[in-house]
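Good day; I would like, with your permission, to put a structural problem before you. What I wish to show you is a protein chain and, alongside it, a tokenised description of its three-dimensional fold. Thank you for your consideration; the sequence and its tokens are set out here:
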Amino acid sequence: MLFRLFLYISIFFLYSCSLDKDTKLSRNFEFSYQINLAKSDNKVQLWFPSPQSNETQLISNENLNHGVLECEKLIEPIHGNNYYYCYSDNGLEKSLDVTYTCNVNRSEHGAVLYADVNEKNYDKGTNNITVPEGKIFKEIIDKYSLSVSNMRMVYDYVLNGMHYGKPKSKESEYYKNPWLSTDGKYGIKKVSRDEVVNLYKKAKNDGGNYTFGNGNSVYACDIGVGNCTDYHSYFMSLSRTMDVPARFHMGFSIPNGESGKVGGYHCWADYYIDGKGWYPVDISEADKNPSKEDYFFGTLDYNRLEFSIGRDLELLNYKKHVNFFVYPLVEGTTYTKLFHYKNI
């Protein structure tokens, strides 16, 4: 364990020293991940991800306060993500707070040659449930002359074709301007904002994933309204169809202040160019902040924390593939969650 920590520190130091003078910016903060588990007479199981050090972030001073739960730290086998599996066979006599804290040094970065990443795991032929390849994406590539030699065109196509919004009802802020409009027609199916809401309600009722927030790239292509998961799944399906490896990253955006709450998850992607490394993209943030459209093609800021990579994850004793992994998975009880940060 000590050797591994020393190796990550060495990698991080060497990478930081090799950065261009304009991309040496970094940020130090403490991150707190708190889960409150309700009292339960059933067996309780908890899975939650933990961030790990790599060439863009250094994780230190990790601490897990898990009370009566039995816990072990594990590594997810396909993508190498860290996570904790915790359980109590006898349930919980009272509610329990499980708190994970760590210190983070996160760097702004461009293309990175990550150690121990096999790009073939993210290449053409690596279809998963919500990020398929195939005819619909090949037709788009051919129609708009998208090319491996100009990945900016792929980025721009998704950026211009998607609209940020998560309207669960007509009362939602995302149903209204500046997100969606009365006369707007979205996606290649040219749907209205009412149809976006109806698809959400249908998926919610049926337990389906053909709606925003599931990272379903076919939905993103058809409907064109969603959040970061949808933008980047769409980008990945197009990239992989062109035989360009592309990965999904899940974590949190960290506000600019000194301390406070962290909102919901955030995700981004990167694509691989042989011999040059993994180039990051954050298309949904570029859409919300057009002044940074050029910046988020090939650069990521330091106001973020990565928790996991990849899709369709396999976790110990969890019976289903996990679409993406940043919030806790809990069986046997209910829970609430809170995330905080403070600069250090």
